[in-house]
Design a protein that fits this description.
single chain, 226 residues, mainly beta, 12-stranded antiparallel β-sheet, 3-stranded antiparallel β-sheet, 2 helices, globular
Length: 226
């Protein structure tokens, strides 16, 4: 039986964060290298790892999250190997090098504890959405893991002069330096998005990337508020 299961065994560790298959994240934990991860995402671990749900630093930042899109975060510390997953969603590992990434809160899986992060309002969308859109902006040098409902596409917005339009319910992450604005469409309302009535897209321009999942998130992140 062991021979039949050898293809599923963990491979040698080569990086702080890496995929084990497309839907699981493996993190090499070490003392002094804390990790923030989505609460409940731990599926297995080896060694000695401790978990602190909703630590004080997280509570202070999460208090800014007034739209109800808060992401429950736990602090992980210790030595060993930590395995994380999010209901079978694809996991994408990003190694930031003095860079930034703006991530939809529902798509945050894990990130290095030393990275700078906070909840930020996306500018230019309040007039379309009432209260606006809030995302988690993570910056610095270190590792970030995000999730996608299916294999995502990464669009390089700097390849052309045209704007890139994305259904906000399918949006995972983007480069914060991109210019963002909302677009209202009446004719496309029956084709784009899930509901009837007006349809909204987010238009990105400038140098950077946009990560889009092949599934519309069920949280209805952008909708008309009376």
């Amino acid at each position: 039986m062991n021979q039949q299961l050898t293809g599923y065994a963990p491979t040698p560790v080569t990086a702080r964060m890496e995929n084990h298959g497309s839907t699981m994240l493996r993190v090499a934990m070490a003392t002094g290298q804390d990790l923030y991860a989505r609460t409940g995402s731990m599926v297995a671990y080896e060694g000695f790892i401790q978990y602190e749900p909703n630590p004080p630093a997280v509570r202070q930042i999460a208090s800014q999250w007034i739209t109800g899109e808060g992401t429950p975060i736990m602090k992980c510390s210790g030595d060993g190997l930590l395995y994380l997953a999010d209901y079978g969603a694809d996991v994408v590992v990003v190694n930031l090098n003095n860079d930034s990434l703006s991530v939809n809160g529902t798509n945050v899986l894990a990130f290095d504890g030393h990275l700078t992060w906070g909840v930020e309002r996306v500018k230019g969308l309040a007039k379309f959405t009432g209260q606006g859109l809030w995302n988690v902006c993570i910056s610095g040098t270190g590792w970030v893991a995000i999730t996608s409902r299916g294999t995502p596409i990464v669009v390089d917005c700097g390849r052309g002069e045209d704007e890139t339009y994305v259904d906000p319910d399918a949006l995972v992450a983007w480069s914060p330096n991109l210019k963002v604005k909302g677009k209202r469409s009446f004719k496309a309302s029956s084709l784009i998005g899930r509901g009837s009535g007006e349809a909204y897209q987010m238009a990105f321009s400038g140098q950077g990337i946009v990560v889009v999942q092949p599934s519309e998130d069920s949280t209805d992140r952008l909708r008309v508020r009376n």
